[in-house]
C-alpha cells in the first residue's frame, strides 16, 4: 500500500490517497485536481475525518468524476455534509452542501471496512473538535483529522465543539499512536 498526502488550498487541510494494485481510497476531500494524479484505478470510497467544509469541499466534484463512490461518515457527519451552517461553509463565502447524500454510508464506532486485500480500516469515534470526528486506523497509521494534530492545541472553541470530549478523545488517540504514525488533518504553516 502506498500513501500520498495532498495539502489543500483552504487552511492547508490535508487529504490522503491510499492505493494498492489499482485500487484507491481517499481520506477527506478538498482540492480534487491535486488528488487526481494519485488516484490509481478504481476509487473505492472516501473516508471522512469530519465534515467541516475545509475537509469536504471537493466532494461534489469528486463524486461527479467517480460515480457511485461511497462516502463514509457517521450520522452527525451526514447532517453536516448537507447543512452549510453545520459545516461552516456558509460563514466562509462559499456555501457547500453535498449534493449526493444517498452515497453516504454510515459507520458505527469500532467498526471495520475492508480497504484492500488483507488491509482494513477501523473507525474510532473521537468527538470533541466536532461531534462527528472519526479517527481512522489503518495498520500502523492513524488518520486523526482535527481531533489531534501533533504540536497544535485541538480547536474546541467552535460551535458544537466539546472541550471535555476532545480531551477524552485525545487520550484515546495518544494510546493508539504509541506504535503508529499520525497523519493529521492539517499541514503546518509554511514559513
Ligand atoms: Zn475541523
Folded structure, characterized:
- With 191 residues, the chain is of the alpha/beta class.
- The protein has a single domain, classed as Metallo-beta-lactamase, Chain A, CATH 3.60.15.
- The protein has 4 helices and 11 strands, in the order E-E-E-H-E-H-E-H-E-E-E-E-E-H-E.
- The protein has helices at residues 32-35, 59-65, 75-81, 163-176, and strands at residues 2-7, 14-20, 23-27, 42-47, 71-73, 104-106, 112-116, 119-125, 134-138, 141-145, 181-184.
- The protein has a 6-stranded mixed sheet. It has a 5-stranded mixed sheet with strand order 7-8-9-10-11, with helices on one face.
- The longest helix is centred in the last third of the chain and has 14 residues, at 163-176.
- The relative contact order is 0.16.
- The mean pLDDT is 96.
- Residues 50, 52, 129-130, 146 line the site of zinc ion (ZN).
- Zinc ion is lined by residues 50, 52, 129-130, 146.
Largest sheet: 6 strands, mixed
Low-confidence stretches: none
Q: What amount of the residues lies in strands?
A: 25-35%
- At the fourth level of CATH, the homologous superfamily is Ribonuclease Z/Hydroxyacylglutathione hydrolase-like
Whole-number mean pLDDT: 96
Distance between the termini: 31 Å
Tally of extended strands?
Answer: 11
Summarize the structure.
The chain is of the alpha/beta class. The chain has helices at 32-35, 59-65, 75-81, 163-176; strands at 2-7, 14-20, 23-27, 42-47, 71-73, 104-106, 112-116, 119-125, 134-138, 141-145, 181-184. It has one domain: Ribonuclease Z/Hydroxyacylglutathione hydrolase-like (Metallo-beta-lactamase, Chain A, 4-Layer Sandwich), CATH 3.60.15.10.
Amino acid at each position: 500500500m502506498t500513501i500520498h498526502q495532498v495539502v489543500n488550498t483552504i487552511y492547508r487541510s490535508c487529504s490522503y490517497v491510499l492505493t494498492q494494485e489499482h485500487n484507491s481510497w481517499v481520506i477527506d476531500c478538498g482540492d480534487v485536481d491535486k488528488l487526481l494524479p494519485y488516484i490509481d484505478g478504481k476509487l473505492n470510497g472516501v473516508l471522512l475525518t469530519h465534515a467541516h467544509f475545509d475537509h469536504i469541499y471537493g466532494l461534489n466534484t469528486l463524486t461527479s468524476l467517480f460515480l457511485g463512490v461511497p462516502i463514509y461518515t457517521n450520522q452527525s457527519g451526514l447532517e453536516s455534509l448537507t447543512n452549510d451552517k453545520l459545516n461552516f461553509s456558509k460563514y466562509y463565502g462559499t456555501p457547500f452542501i453535498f449534493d449526493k447524500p444517498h452515497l453516504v454510508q454510515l459507520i458505527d464506532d469500532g467498526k471495520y471496512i475492508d480497504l484492500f486485500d488483507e488491509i482494513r480500516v477501523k473507525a474510532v469515534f473521537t468527538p470533541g473538535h466536532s461531534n462527528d470526528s472519526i479517527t481512522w486506523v489503518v495498520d500502523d497509521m492513524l488518520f486523526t483529522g482535527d481531533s489531534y494534530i501533533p504540536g497544535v492545541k485541538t480547536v474546541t472553541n467552535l460551535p458544537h465543539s466539546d472541550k471535555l470530549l476532545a480531551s477524552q478523545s485525545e487520550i484515546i488517540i495518544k494510546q493508539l499512536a504509541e506504535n503508529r504514525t499520525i497523519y493529521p488533518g492539517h499541514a503546518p504553516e509554511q514559513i
